[in-house]
């Protein structure tokens, strides 16, 4: 049996994470991206894939006032994009974002003929052709074809 907790590494940041709500691996760049929900940003850290001694080092932060609170993120290695969903915060529209690793928003998306209410998770299919969003209140899954 493998024990993955023998030598835990605590990730650092330029600021504390405030409710880290989702995590995704960007393997080809040796990065871990964390949805820092209450700070409304995505924090990137070294993943320690190529060098276990370089794990958890803060690399950069991706933020945009349009995000509001970042609830979930997923990475698609086929197009090298982050897929991000925010949650209700009052003034921000609840929507999905396609974001480059440079931090630029490439696209936004919502279900056709309805709105997101409380998206809570996002996943990308292995071939990169579909994005799935799980919501609470209402409890539903929405599939987007790219």
Describe, in plain words, how this protein is organized in 3D.
This protein has a single domain (20-145), classed as TolB, C-terminal domain (Neuraminidase, 6 Propeller). The chain has no helices and 11 strands. The chain has strands spanning 20-26, 31-36, 41-47, 55-63, 69-76, 81-87, 96-100, 105-109, 119-124, 130-135, 140-145. It is globular. The protein starts with 19 loop residues before the first strand and ends with a strand.
- Taken from the alpha-carbon principal axes, the silhouette is globular
Order of helices and strands: EEEEEEEEEEE
So how many helices? 0
Multimeric state: single chain
| N→C terminal distance | 39 Å
CATH topology: Neuraminidase
- Looking at the overall shape, the CATH architecture is 6 Propeller
Biggest sheet features: 4 strands, antiparallel
Question: What is the assigned CATH homologous superfamily?
Answer: TolB, C-terminal domain
Q: What share of the residues lie within helices?
A: under 10%
């Amino acid at each position: 049996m493998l024990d993955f907790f023998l030598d835990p590494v605590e990730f650092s940041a330029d600021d504390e994470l405030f409710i880290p709500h989702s995590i995704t691996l960007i393997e080809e760049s040796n990065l871990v991206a964390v949805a820092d929900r209450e700070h409304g940003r995505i924090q990137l850290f070294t993943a320690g894939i190529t060098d276990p001694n370089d794990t958890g080092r803060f690399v950069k932060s991706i933020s945009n006032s349009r995000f509001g609170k970042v609830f979930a993120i997923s990475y698609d290695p086929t197009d090298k994009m982050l897929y991000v969903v925010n949650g209700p915060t009052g003034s921000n529209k609840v929507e999905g974002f396609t974001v480059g690793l440079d931090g630029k928003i490439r696209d936004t998306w919502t279900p056709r003929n309805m709105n997101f209410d409380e998206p809570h998770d996002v996943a990308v299919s292995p071939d990169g052709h579909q994005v799935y969003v799980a919501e609470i209140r209402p409890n539903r899954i929405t599939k987007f074809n790219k």
